[in-house]
Design goal:
This protein has six helices and four strands. By secondary structure, it is an alpha+beta fold.
């Protein structure tokens, strides 16, 4: 029996193969992410394409993705954190792989959305890259609070900032 590439500790036929073959739908973002990882390892790019929406699907090139996947030797998957809130979910993971003999890793915070009972991968970001926050206007102490609470800034968000 073959161990599942997603490192769940289960056999492939009892784990990700059920999702990749279409026998079952992933019930959580983590199950979808693990099955997508496994799909890359077995080079099932059709599954990768079927499980995307939004920005991820917009940039998806099946041929390019398949060529890339054929050059990769997947070495392991570590799930760091997961979460679900309503129809949105996330999975933070590290996937290790070798390309042309060089070991690399992909650290990603993946975003998932559920639509009509199915989870889809919609976007992924490197969690080590921070995005600067641009402040348009800093309220004065006696100005109305920008949060629109109706209070003066000094009695509302200025207190929270301290």
């Amino acid at each position: 029996m073959k161990a599942c590439p997603c490192h769940s500790g289960k056999q492939y036929m009892e784990c990700c193969e059920l999702f990749i073959s279409g026998k079952l739908l992933p019930k959580t973002p983590e199950q979808l992410m693990r099955s997508r990882y496994s799909a890359y390892t077995v080079i099932n790019i059709d599954y990768i394409g079927r499980t995307m929406r939004g920005p991820a699907a917009k940039d998806f090139d099946k041929r390019e993705t398949e060529n890339w996947a054929r050059q990769i030797e997947w070495l392991g998957l570590e799930v760091i954190n997961t979460g679900i809130q309503d129809h949105n979910g996330f999975v933070e993971f590290i996937a290790k792989y070798a390309k042309e003999g060089v070991t690399e890793q992909m650290h990603e915070h993946s975003e998932f959305h559920r639509k009509d009972g199915k989870w889809y991968y919609v976007n992924g970001k490197d969690p080590s890259i921070s995005v600067p926050i641009r402040v348009e206007h800093q309220a004065g102490r006696n100005d109305p609070c920008p949060c629109k609470s109706g209070k003066k800034f000094k009695k509302c968000c200025a207190v929270k900032e301290k």
